[in-house]
UniProtKB/TrEMBL annotation:
Main location: endoplasmic reticulum
Subcellular location(s) of the protein: Endoplasmic reticulum membrane; Nucleus inner membrane
EC number: 3.6.1.68
Protein name per Swiss-Prot or TrEMBL: Polyisoprenoid diphosphate/phosphate phosphohydrolase PLPP6
Amino acid sequence: MPSPKAKNPGRSGGSPVLGSSNGRYEFMSLTKPLNRSSPPHLLQRQGSDPTTARLRASESPTRRRGSGSSTGSASGQGPPEEDGIRLNPSLIRVALSSLLAIDLWLSKRLGVCACEDSSWGSVRPLMKLLEISGHGIPWLAGTVYCLYKSDSAAGQEVMLNLFMGLLLDLILVGIVKAVVRRRRPAHNRMDMFATFSVDRYSFPSGHATRAAMCGRFLLAHLVLAAPLRVLVFLWVGLVGLSRVMLGRHNVTDVMFGFWMGYCQYNLVEMLWLSPQTLQGLLGQSA
Ligand SMILES: CC(C)=CCC/C(C)=C/CC/C(C)=C/COP(=O)(O)O
């Protein structure tokens, strides 16, 4: 039986994007169809028979590689262009699914407070306290209270913008959750208080977005003393960690949530409502 090498002396396990003609290797385009000036053995692979082309496309790369004689370019069957076209998307898919697998594995390992009888079940009450500290209701209620109690225009301006930021956060997180629809981890017990229907989805973590946005807001406008600033940083980090430890979220939900909350603060700054803007808005509506 002739070996593939004997049939195709120029090809020794080379890249599938290489074509051989006249004993010389040439690079073939991965994305563009071959033009008429291409060597006939390359054109032949495109084939006028769609059934054969489909069957070839559905073959696994391993099988294609294994059938040495059928891949020999000297036999008039050059390396398949489908390989080149499918290589990049499949690489991305492999990278994404590996990241997802690491995410799920890590999240499961870190979900040590998911229920009372989990390995760290005894710290679950502490984690739930952190959960409440990052919940939307205390933040909204606290902001409205401070707005009401504040007797300076500057204080009211800051509180009003924080309030707007919190509403913006709820809306944006709700939209992303509704679009992405990633289920919460299987080990999560859905015993959270006051949730919207989109909160059955986990991507992104609303607590993480709120913690990151409010953390930045506090550091920029309200908390100046160094020890308190450290506490703010710690609180943001712990809120994120507690989401994974409680089994509410995967690590990527929290990471993305932090990034989203960070960006949301930029949006708050861009849309900052000054007393003048506010007066203008109120004047227009009156
Ligand atoms: C006034 C008003 C509309 C308040 C709604 C506040 C509320 C129910 C926020 C939901 C907070 C929540 C449970 C978010 C879910 O956070 P994840 O970290 O689990 O995504």
